[in-house]
Write a structure and sequence with these properties.
With about 170 residues, this protein is mainly β. The protein has one domain: Regulator of chromosome condensation 1/beta-lactamase-inhibitor protein II (Methylamine Dehydrogenase, Chain H), CATH 2.130.10.30. It is about 5% helix and about 40% strand. The chain has a four-stranded antiparallel beta sheet with strand order 1-2-3-4, with no helix packed on it. The termini are far apart. About 45% of the residues are buried.
């Protein structure tokens, strides 16, 4: 049975993303709404309380978000100027902040400052950020199956650059 989200009706939506047990919608004006399971802060609302209805992520209100991506228990948001904010579970470094803790509020990935990220994607426990102007693909998080593309199975808590991957990806656009 189809059920419209009444709380988002009339709001022009630019993009949507789904994680393990949470969902995110980004409006055309750049506002971010999240709902679902929140055990690790993946909704970015400042608590770990689940939300059964779309709730605005107030920490991103003035960031002009264009896209969101969701992992199992984390979220990444891409701004119009190429900035990346992450929040939620970070036990494998998938937030890119250098630690392995959870973040209940959006936090900018400082290691990517000065770059213009054009795409962001999340796997279950890792995150990718594409910077075609530099010919680089950055990855961080769990690398046990080689999913970071660093020729290693090591986990990375900060963005690691792969240049040869990004040059192929940039040509695909």
């Amino acid at each position: 049975m189809q059920q419209p989200l009444e709380s988002l009706s009339g709001l022009p939506i630019a993009s949507i993303a789904c994680g393990g047990h949470h969902s995110v919608a980004v409006s055309l004006s750049g506002a971010v709404y999240a709902w679902g399971r929140n055990a690790h802060g993946q909704l970015g609302i400042g608590s770990q309380e689940d939300r059964h209805f779309p709730t605005q992520v107030r920490g991103l209100r003035h960031q002009d978000v264009r896209r969101a991506a969701c992992g199992q228990d984390h979220t990444a948001c891409l701004t119009a100027d190429g900035g990346v904010f992450t929040f939620g579970g970070g036990s494998y470094g998938q937030l890119g902040h250098g630690g392995r803790g959870s973040e209940v509020l959006p936090r900018k990935v400082m290691e990517l400052m000065g770059t213009e990220v054009t795409q962001v994607a999340c796997g279950k426990l890792h995150t990718l950020a594409l910077v075609p102007s530099r010919g680089r693909l950055y990855s961080f998080g769990l690398g046990g199956a080689g999913q970071l593309g660093t020729r290693s199975s090591a986990t990375a808590a900060t963005p690691q650059a792969r240049t040869e991957c990004a040059s192929h990806l940039a040509r695909c656009h």
